[in-house]
């Protein structure tokens, strides 16, 4: 089962990624100003997964990627894949597991190992 992970970027904006059951990133959202925007986007994805389209492209280096879109809005951009088959497997994992995926919040600045 995949997992949504919310985190903070270095510029104090928020993003979320969707990771596979093996822990590999499948897609990353654009930067968002508020953590609540990430949470709302994740809930919208889970509630309406069948409404999203996946626009497949090829990068200049020959690798494959997709943009997850709702109408004309880019919701997320995938990692780069070496083959079209792996790209399809990434999309399939989203469709199969996003609805029941957990959400992890790593936005706190608490260090596991204090100074």
CATH topology: PH-domain like
How big is the Rg? 14 Å
The global form is globular
Largest sheet: 7 strands, mixed
Annotation, overall tally of beta strands: 7
Name given to the CATH architecture: Roll
Order of helices and strands: EEEHEEEHE
Proportion of residues in extended strands: 25-35%
Low-confidence stretches: none
Helix content: 10-25%
What is the rounded distance between the termini?
35 Å
Helix-and-strand structural type:
alpha+beta
- What CATH first level would be assigned? Mainly Beta
**What is the domain tally?**
1
Note the total helix count. Answer: 2
Q: Which sequence of strands runs across the widest sheet?
A: 4-5-6-3-2-1-7
Residue-averaged pLDDT, rounded? 91
Protein name: DUF1508 domain-containing protein
InterPro entries: UPF0339_domain (IPR051141), YegP-like_sf (IPR036913)
Organism: Flavobacterium fluvii
Protein architecture, described:
This protein has a single domain (3-105), classed as PH-domain like, CATH 2.30.29.80. Strand 1 (3-8) and strand 2 (14-19) form a beta hairpin. It has two helices and seven strands, in the order βββαβββαβ. It is α+β, with helices and mostly antiparallel strands and 115 residues long. The mean pLDDT is 91. Helices cover 23% and strands 35% of the residues. It comes from Flavobacterium fluvii. This is DUF1508 domain-containing protein.
């Amino acid at each position: 089962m995949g997992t949504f992970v919310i985190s903070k970027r270095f510029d104090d904006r928020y993003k979320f990624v969707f990771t596979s059951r093996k822990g590999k990133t499948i897609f990353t959202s654009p930067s968002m100003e508020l953590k609540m925007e990430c949470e709302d986007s994740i809930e919208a994805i889970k509630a309406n997964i069948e409404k999203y389209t996946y626009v497949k492209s090829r990068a200049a280096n020959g690798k494959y990627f997709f943009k997850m879109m709702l109408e004309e809005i880019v919701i997320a951009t995938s990692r780069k894949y070496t083959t079209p088959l792996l790209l399809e497997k990434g999309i399939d994992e989203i469709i199969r597991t996003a609805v029941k995926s957990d959400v992890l919040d790593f936005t706190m600045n608490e260090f596991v190992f204090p100074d």
